[in-house]
Amino acid sequence: MPVVPEPVLTMSGIGKQFPGVAALDGVDLRLLPGEVHALMGENGAGKSTLIKVLTGVHPADAGTVELGGAAVAFASPLEAQRAGISTVYQEVNLCANLSVAENILLGREPRRMGRIDWKRMRARAGELLARLELSLEVAAPLSSYSLAVQQMVAIARAVDIDARVLILDEPTSSLDADEVAQLFRVMRRLKDEGIAILFVSHFLDQIYEISDRMTILRNGRLVGEYLTRELPQVELVAKMIGQELAVLERLHGEAKVFDRPLVEARGLGRVGAIEPFSLTVHEGEVVGLAGLLGSGRTEIARLLFGADHASTGEIAVGGTPQSLRTPRAAMAQKIAFCSENRKADGLIPDLTVRENIILALQATRGWTRPVPRDQQDELVDRYVKALKISPPNPEHLVRNLSGGNQQKVVLARWLILEPRLLILDEPTRGIDVGAKAEIQRLVAELSDGGMAVLFISAELEEVLRLSHKVQVLRDRRLVAELPNDAGLTSDVLMETIASGGRAS
Amino acid sequence: MTTLTAGRVGLPAKYLPVLVTGCLLAAMFVAGGIRYEGFASGQVILNVFIDNAFLLVVAVGMTFVILTGGIDLSVGSVVALSTMISASLMAGPGWPPYLVVPLVLVIGSGLGLVMGYIVHAFDIQPFIVTLAGMFLARGLCYTIGTDSIPIEDPAFTAFAQSRIDLFADMWISPSVIVALVVVGVAAYVLHYTRFGRAVYATGGSEQSALLMGLPVGRTKITVYTVSGFCSALGGVLLSFYMLSGYGLHAVGMELDAIAAVVIGGTLLTGGSGFLLGTVLGVLVLGLIQTIISFEGTLSSWWTKIFIGMLLFVFILLQRLFSARSRR
Amino acid sequence: MRRLVWPAVVLVLLLALNLFFTPSFFSIEVKDGHLYGSLIDILRFGAPLILVSLGMTLVIATGGIDLSVGSVVAISGALACLQISQDASVFTAVTLALGLCLVLGAWNGFLVAGIGIQPIIATLILMVAGRGLAQLITDGQIITVNSPAYKVIGGGYWLTVPFGILIVLGVLAITAFLTRRLALGLLIESVGSNAEASRLAGIRARGIIIMVYAFAALCAGVAGLMISSNVSSADGNNAGLWIELDAILAVVIGGTSLAGGRFSLGGTVLGALIIQTLTTTIYSIGVPPETTLLFKALVVTAVCLVQSPSFRAKVLRGRGRTAPPGPAAEKKVRVSL
To answer: How close C263 comes to chain A (CA, Å)?
Structure first.
């Protein structure tokens, strides 16, 4: 082992409680100068909470943070910035209406007798960009540049404040390959200047290309710190996802024969979201989508439901080509979609459980033909019982329910439409174990009844338990289709995700 | 070195809206000059300034607020309140103007400060807060008195009626000088001070401005204070113009001010626009009135219809503009 | 229903205050076959505001706002009176006026839902231009009409009850039917509460928004007819001036959030009645009527502060643990500057 320099930043024993959840529990992190350090973990692993604790957005409940050997506790991102910890987020936090030069120097503009010296400001901005080997027209508005360039302007701003630590939170998720290469050049240059970089990305290739060291989190706990070159991709995936040792029984018994294709996508894709893919879902079939967060799982679901417009390809439902350009069009084909982001895309917080459940049915009928109240009550009652929604009071405001029960409400909304294809995007995320098992059992029952299900989950075990076949995604590409037979284990799946399907 | 160009040629796009307004103004002036005798004279332009000096000052304050993405509905009422306080203090207790005017300016700024504080600290929509301010100021007017109070202070009236002669028989009122000074100072502040840039940054993205360490709260409170100050000053200028204080002065002036700012090319969502645009916007409004009075047969309400149509066109242009630049 | 408690308490207190100053305040008598009394007056004079507020409630429930209703009030009255003064039948006049209002409302809705302009700005256009349009229709004059049939709308009686009150009851019943018996209310609340989730649930928000703005303009149109009929004349300049602000206030007092979502028709009616009673009270207890606006300013401020989550977090509950992280972080930012 080479001599390890003194860490510039050490976080130890960090704990953070949110009402009802331990978001972080005893997490350690150290950043070394001149290194790119990757922070890895799936949804809910605690990455963003850790960054927020570090930058002073949230106070820590337990543990210490040391910067350059001295204990620190930042009360705001600004204080952290002043101390030399700068953050560049996925959504560029700059003002696109102002010039590049201003965005770099806003708040510390060079002045002469109280008046902003625009000439010196532009020169200074040019110098700072040159340090990153960039040459931009600094007087042009930021909005005239691409997102990638905006991100580098954000980095230029960040490193101007004598940054010792630079946090890059998913900076690459909307960049193309050339732009990523450019960003990495800038990162390497900063690294050579001795800055410690904390890098978050869901693209494994990028992690292995740029990072020297990584810290892996799972469910708010530390898995460990590893040197990137010493950790094979398969092990990384295994550590991120975690493996339950007990072999769970498959919910589906013998292999069924699926010969009636319901939804066929051919070359369907959307620029910047998912590369063109082909996928067939048969009647009664459960198709699992496996892949890490950001691999394109949700994007596939949204295209099939018409929530986003496809830029290429076509869809056929039951053999006839359809243009699913709106959710309504997809609903007319009896396709239903339970979104991953319940709060933003699913629930109507102001409405009651009953109203949320009948909403999609009402939408298909239009406002002039209300669902008769007794039919509403009967439907709602049936699904509240079947899904064990608690409290079982349909007039409760849905915002007051727990996460699992909210999920069941959204599920019930789609089930009463009796869809032919049900797309479930992470239906079991953030809900308790009991509710999880119930939802899994329900999916199996529905498919036995002939409904096709597209099941998306970050938990491979769950995908394996439920699916008849598994589609594997990596870095916004569909890389493999694997029949779920006895030979398919979570190890094989992880191997496929890690290798990008090249091995199989 | 990696060289990246923005891929634009010619005039920066940010000047485009101001240019459009400028062209519109020029076209109106030329059309007026061709159509009406005696229209194409310098004094006609100067009269537009003289008749709209108070609106110009009020619109400057409104520009600050709109640049941060806010709105101030109280300006018309604060203008009326200022005329009312000035007139009543000079008429009743006989206070001298040099005490009354600063007092009025302090009251206006104070009202703005309070509204700005409520907007910022309690996160209530500016629309509602300034609506309350509008009721309050108008209500205070009526509490002072429901009738028009004439201003007879000799110094005040002398100043109000003085003419500043320019070359070739043209003249302006002192109010025009005041208004132009306000425009000049405001343009300097917006362009050359950190506060000015913080105004643009806040309007561009409040969230980003906060994360970039700008004093967003202070900026928001300050712009409403500036707007309150400008309204009070506009009220003083209006008292010069009207030589009276009246609770029904400047009814609906907030709409004129907002219209002038929008026609001047400032985005109502904030972050983009210039004071020069606001000046041009006020001139366009003033010139519409001049044309209508020259036309003779057209009635005054056509002003409102024209302003509404112009608003529509400019808002539509803004919408297209922002849809295009969002990519 | 619990949300209606506060507005109801305020209204009852206001009425009780009146009783204290004017013991005969609650008495209602029948004169010449017409109902008379202070309470009847509040309802009668408050009728246009209630109508406009009902339309505004639905607009606000979708997360929008309509500033143009005051101008629409003026346009409607102006067009109807112009028609009648030109010897058109009252039916034709009313139909034309309300038809124009529907078109104007649909125009607002199109700007908001079709082009995607912010509601405040989109309706500002008609607020400014509409005032001019109303004056254009009346030619800047006050058009006086002498039509007993037209007079009935705002000043008539039917079965001893003022006709205006009956219209309000009718519109209220229709609105309640459309929104609560039919599913319009559910879809409006859904769009206002979470627009993206509503889209993913298959709701056609565009049509609903256009319809809601058209409805608001229609309500304003009826109110305009009522106002002009009551005085048998149309004043393009002053009819319905600032009624949009009173209407927004009534909606907010009635417990409908300006952010959209859940709305309460009953709350809005209470809110409008509170505003009207406030005006009446100021007259009856001898406070100079000029101060009405001051009271309104206080009421708006108080209601909005109480509705503001950050005000409640900061003032009512103290700055304790319950304060959400967002404002708390912001607060610290300010301190460190």
So the answer is: 10
